[in-house]
């Protein structure tokens, strides 16, 4: 993972290939420019970790992986939702401590009796919709663009109706800075059922952690699963001592609500197929730039 602290490891190289939690801000890009690096590629769909304007100013080529296995993210979203619905983390944590008593917390609805709301019905959202539909759930969706493919799997609703009707809400929208920052806020959560489950495996910038914490503490939300946080470079890929508080006290309080809150360290793309897609496309990006001077996956500042 590229950080301010290890940026010097990029010396004597021609290019860098980043992940979403790498730091490619003005400070690091200036140093990469000093090192003579002209290729700043990322094996992610999103590029919000790269200062595109600075990269453009230094005449750097920036390319991304526009898509990879949608099943990877969709399956993790489904897993988090099902763990919260069936209280499996709660149950297995108890048995790990030699407590085999079955209590009322372990009671749940069956997923076939649930309404699942998918916000963002692109490739990943549609894949999760198919997975839930296969389990018998009633699947509804919200998206500005209502594709014919999605209409075959789910019923489109307004976002407000989706939030009001869903037992499980899963987020699959891109983060657009200045437009949907912290869209999962107090107002959003207030429109959800108090016994609903929320899952976000998209981008951490979409969620207001404090609002989610408040909703959970006030029993206005039953459970929360996430694979992402804003500024996750301060958290993920690091190991903290068990008695050491996390850098962000709100995230600490969220994690303290386990097993009502389930956090995974941005592992949505950690599958064999997704990794294969990322590496293959990244190799193609390098090959295209070096042989033709351009790649179809190049990204420019807006």
TrEMBL record:
UniProt-recorded Gene Ontology molecular function terms: D-lactate dehydrogenase (NAD+) activity; NAD binding
PANTHER family registered for this protein in UniProt: 2-HYDROXYACID DEHYDROGENASE HOMOLOG 1-RELATED (PTHR43026)
Enzyme Commission number(s) of this protein: 1.1.1.28
Pfam family of the protein (one): 2-Hacid_dh_C
Keyword Oxidoreductase: yes
Protein name: D-lactate dehydrogenase
Domain D-isomer specific 2-hydroxyacid dehydrogenase NAD-binding: 79-268
Record's keyword terms, sorted: NAD, Oxidoreductase
Similarity remark: Belongs to the D-isomer specific 2-hydroxyacid dehydrogenase family.
Keyword Hydrolase attached: no
Residue ranges occupied by any D-isomer specific 2-hydroxyacid dehydrogenase catalytic domain in the UniProt entry: 2-300
First-level EC class: oxidoreductase
């Amino acid at each position: 993972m590229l950080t301010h602290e290890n940026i010097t490891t990029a010396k004597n190289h021609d290019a860098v290939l980043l992940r979403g939690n790498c730091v490619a801000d003005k400070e690091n890009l200036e140093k990469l420019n000093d090192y003579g690096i002209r290729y700043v590629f990322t094996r992610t769909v999103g590029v919000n970790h790269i200062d595109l304007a600075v990269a453009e100013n230094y005449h750097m080529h920036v390319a991304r992986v526009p898509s990879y296995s949608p099943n990877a993210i969709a399956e993790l979203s489904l897993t988090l939702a099902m763990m919260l619905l069936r209280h499996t983390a709660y149950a297995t944590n108890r048995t790990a401590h030699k407590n085999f008593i079955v209590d009322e917390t372990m009671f749940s609805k069956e997923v076939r009796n649930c309404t699942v709301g998918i916000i963002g019905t692109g490739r990943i959202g549609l894949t999760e919709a198919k997975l839930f539909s296969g389990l018998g759930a009633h699947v509804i969706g919200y998206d500005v663009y209502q594709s014919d493919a999605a209409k075959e799997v789910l019923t489109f609703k307004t976002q407000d109706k989706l939030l009001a009707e869903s037992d499980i809400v899963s987020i699959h929208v891109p983060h657009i800075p200045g437009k949907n920052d912290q869209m999962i806020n107090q107002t959003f959560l207030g429109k959800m059922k108090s016994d609903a489950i929320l899952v976000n495996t998209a981008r951490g910038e979409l969620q207001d952690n404090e609002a989610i914490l408040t909703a959970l503490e006030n029993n206005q939300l039953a459970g929360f699963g996430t694979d992402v946080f804003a500024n996750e470079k301060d958290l993920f890929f690091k190991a903290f001592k068990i008695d050491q508080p996390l850098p962000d006290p709100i995230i600490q309080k969220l994690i303290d609500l386990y097993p009502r809150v389930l956090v995974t360290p941005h592992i949505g793309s950690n599958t064999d197929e997704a990794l294969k897609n990322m590496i293959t496309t990244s190799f193609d990006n390098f090959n295209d730039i070096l042989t033709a001077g351009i790649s179809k996956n190049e990204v420019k500042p807006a």
